[in-house]
Amino acid sequence: MFNNWEEVKKSQEGVARIITNSINLNRVSHSYIFEGPRGTRKKWAAILFAKSLLCKNPQGVNPCNVCHNCKRIDSLTHPNLFMIDPPGKIIKKEVISSLIQELGKASLENGPRIYIIVDADRFNQSSANTLLKTMEEPGQEVYQILITENYHSLLSTIVSRAETIHFVPVNRSVIKDYLLTLEVGETTANIISQYTSDVENAVKLAKNKETEEIINLVIEIFGNLLLKDQSSIISYYQSEKLLNNPENIDVFLNLLTFYQKDILSYKLDADNLIFIEQKETIAKLAKKINKYQAQELLEEMLDLSTKIKYNINVQLAFNKLLMSLERGYKYATYSRSYSV
Predict the structure, then answer these.
(1) pLDDT tens-digit profile of 263-279?
(2) How confident is the model at residue 309 (pLDDT cuts 50, 70, 90)?
(3) Domain annotation covers residue 176
(4) What is the dihedral of CA 206, 212, 215, 219, to 10 degrees?
(5) Which structural domain range is residue 81 located in?
(6) How far apart are CA 111 and CA 178, in angstroms?
(7) pTM exceeds 0.70 for this model
(8) CATH number for position 308
(9) φ/ψ (deg, to 5) at 95
């Protein structure tokens, strides 16, 4: 959760500038659309906006984060804050009608009322038309924020009645730094930040013990390629239970790809490794193959990342990939198009 607009500025400088300027100049719009890709913390920014308007002891444009109002907004229990995020693929007319009815009643507490609609592109025609009535006459102390990842799915009549704030993809270094503040190890933070640009997903992965197990499995698999008496394929089969869901399989394949990219990068004298603590092993593996073989192994992984989305035998596919790795690194016999 964001505590102040300086934190927003680190990843969304334009957003922070527009909102803080509007607060400073007392020119806050009654209707906003927060649009941008998943993981850009649009909802966090919307909640911070609500705190900025309702805080009893504001520090300039920032909320104090300790008053009764701020605490209740953080827990989404403030009576003047309405969070609309119903389950299902559609936001129905009844949900918006109920919101309008609530806004029509006398407020339980003084101060502005703010409603936030998550995934606003889920409106159907009926619910969107119902919302338009509140946008045309929102009321002096009513503010609305529509959050969406699919801006172009919104009705043009809704877009024309709101100020659109564009959120950009979060820089991966920002995600890494944020994970480090949560006491995530540097290698893990670096790997997760390369895997996802979604901050919330990054935090979820960091807290999931299976993520660390997958990282260790990938390190073990590549380490075994240097040992004649160890098999990367056996390591994979011994961890079969870990790779029993699509999410973990996707992480595993991406991390294999990252490690192979590191080997190719090392051969090309690049110093931007993802598995930063594995440099010694990466250097040894890089000496075992030429850059064409390294590129081909990487291409095989990228091919699999496309095929795995379809109904294929995942176990057989990984077995084939790991056999290619063992042939390439242990026996220097792998090549799809180059003679060795």
Answers:
(1) 999 998 877 899 989 99
(2) confident
(3) no
(4) 140
(5) 5-166
(6) 33
(7) yes
(8) 1.20.272.10
(9) -65, -45
